[in-house]
């Protein structure tokens, strides 16, 4: 079971939660990037890489018999803050298409570079599958 935590009097966040409470089996998803299962990039477009990264997260969750709605935390690392901010509507649409309308607590951080030269985004996630 998951419960969204929203302190009284706080403005409702858009696209994430301030907190979440969960009980069950933990599934840690290592940092995923925008390449396919064979470690091949098909695009250098930021939103395309976000899409593939989210699909990769869902694939790892499925391998653990978990679903996107079990996500309790996501940390997004990207190399271009402006690419992220200027395409938030597209990113939101891709997110809802793949993850759904489940918005766990998230952090978004610009980094200088990622380990793979072509990677523009990396997302690390944590899920809890209810007992």
Automatic annotation (TrEMBL):
Membrane-spanning residues: none
UniProt xrefs under PANTHER family: BLR7761 PROTEIN (PTHR43857), YJGH FAMILY PROTEIN (PTHR43857:SF1)
UniProt protein name: Endoribonuclease L-PSP
Species in which this protein is naturally found: Rhizobium nepotum 39/7
Lineage: Bacteria, Pseudomonadati, Pseudomonadota, Alphaproteobacteria, Hyphomicrobiales
């Amino acid at each position: 079971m998951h419960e969204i935590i929203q302190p009284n009097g706080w403005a409702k966040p858009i696209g994430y939660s301030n907190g979440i409470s969960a009980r069950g089996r933990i599934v840690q998803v290592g940092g995923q990037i925008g390449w396919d299962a064979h470690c091949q990039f098909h695009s250098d477009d930021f939103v395309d890489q976000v899409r593939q990264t989210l699909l990769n997260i869902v694939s790892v969750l499925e391998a653990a018999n978990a679903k996107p709605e079990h996500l309790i935390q996501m940390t997004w690392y990207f190399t271009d803050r402006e690419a992220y901010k200027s395409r938030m509507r597209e990113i939101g649409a891709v997110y809802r298409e793949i993850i759904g309308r489940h918005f766990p607590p998230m952090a978004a951080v610009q980094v200088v570079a990622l380990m793979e030269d072509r990677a523009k985004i990396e997302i690390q996630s944590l899920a809890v599958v209810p007992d």
